[in-house]
């Protein structure tokens, strides 16, 4: 790709993101909703100004990594640790219910057992980016509710890994390998536990050493490099890179350099994060939503059913917290689906487990959960005083 | 390219850059020299940790764009305009002398007329990135000398364009098209003049409008987007993208938001700029410098000759300023050669105007000017009090 084309695409993305965000805020909506819609407008489906390319897609993924890193740095480690049990229960309920609901809806709709299991699995994993941005846009990223949702999304990711392994096992060998499941769970737990324990011991010492270096920007660059290597490590054990980035941020949030890193990462996030949300919007193919195309009808009906159970399953998960928090806020925060569901669906499509219309229905469900969450979450947050 | 591989490469680049920079500063050298050498070490020629890829190369180019944007924002518009006449004379002398010297050295060495003209042309254009970084590393980016060198490099780029057009004309049609030269000069002058005039009128109004927007980071993101679009525009008229980026920075330096943009661009530059210098180092093939390989001897001798006249021609250009400035500092600041010379050389090689060993000799000359400038420039700057 030519440098000019890249620079022009970045220009369009950034301007569209900020105009979209501004319009959204004018209508008292979170900026991220405006960015998503701006993405649809400039994307392939509509104006076609922003085309997907490897370069922009990688930048978008780095945007998601920086978003979660920033969320981690902004968090309070201690308050995050306090809610970790609730995060776990929310994650479990939020995986089990959508899975069961999805299975029965699909089965009732006439799909086979394997197909129905597969559809259920695509509903399980929360895509936390949207929720993080809404909490950020409204200045509530440090609230208990936000911390529980992020924690639950991390656990979610681990469970998602296990489910995928189980399903692949069932499909390829017809059986479930307990050893394989234990291995995956062990590796993920080892990474998360290890990262937090080693990180908490090593990070302050390493930062003290880095702090003695004098070259420009060294502290911030090392903090950012730490985020990158944690993202790589988490990908290496099979988790999403954003899990590692969040853990890196969380570890740094305990050091004395928290505020410095927080201040420096902000402009970097301002540039990178919109790329993620614009590209998320740009990937939406608006023609699927055309109700005048009869070919879409049965797909849209099934997508609507999936959407209903996807929302219901996650909403209920908020009530898995027995502490004094806003349960509805947590449930809504868990609603967005994203990459993990799409990865499942793409796997199913390429292995001929699910059909093309079924794949599109899952895609539509993901898009709907993404777009409805910001306005609903904002309405709930605003009815709830900050220190509840 | 896989996301993990990209993140790992970025990690290695950032850590290597900061360690290299730190070691350089320990030995009282500018950080940029350390980054270049760190690039050689981790690059393909040595450890092979950092491989070139489209993605990283584009990020490196964006790094150069951000470097010049930052230099522009940090500049004082009025003091830059005061030295513009001197920048022009330095550029002219600094183009003419290396061209003549290069021509005669090549001709004396037995090359044909066309070949000798070509070699002369590869010596003309200054690569300003290195010099900007040294002035930045030493806190002298606002000095008259720095402003003259940057201005001369901009003019340089325009002259480089014209020379390339002339040479291509001579080679393809055997004659020089005056109309073509006027067209190119006109477009470049139109862009630079137009950008500064329109920019100075439009930017404050636009920024006042943007300032009323409330969404997070909007002012900085629009400033950055302005840099991107100016880089695209300057590329469109045939100039280097960094010329447009510098002009964008210069325009913003006149607005009331100068300090805000300066503060916000810094962490972004901290991440991107090292990629440029590490990749510059990583592109160095150390095997060319092996004196024990007889195949290198004649090439290295010619490279040494080219290096000598390349340095001499630019050094003298410093004395084209009749004001009270440090002429040696300007001359040394003009020494580094880079992309433009390499683009010329690559064109010559692919059109069979110059031979492969000649191409390598030009490459070695570029590398030498790049690596010797930082220590020499630093020594001169430190002997010269800040307000001379």
From TrEMBL, chains A, B:
Residues 17-380 form the Cation/H+ exchanger transmembrane domain. It comes from the Bacteria. One of its GO terms (biological process) is proton transmembrane transport. Signal peptide: none annotated. It is found in: Membrane. The chain crosses the membrane at residues 6-24, 31-49, 55-73, 85-105, 117-136, 148-172, 184-207, 219-251, 271-288, 300-322, 328-349, 358-377. It is a multi-pass membrane protein. One of its GO terms (cellular component) is membrane. GO terms for molecular function: antiporter activity. Keywords: Antiport, Ion transport, Membrane, Sodium, Sodium transport, Transmembrane, Transmembrane helix, Transport. Belongs to the monovalent cation:proton antiporter 2 (CPA2) transporter (TC 2.A.37) family. This is Cation/H+ exchanger transmembrane domain-containing protein. It comes from candidate division WOR-1 bacterium RIFCSPLOWO2_02_FULL_46_20.
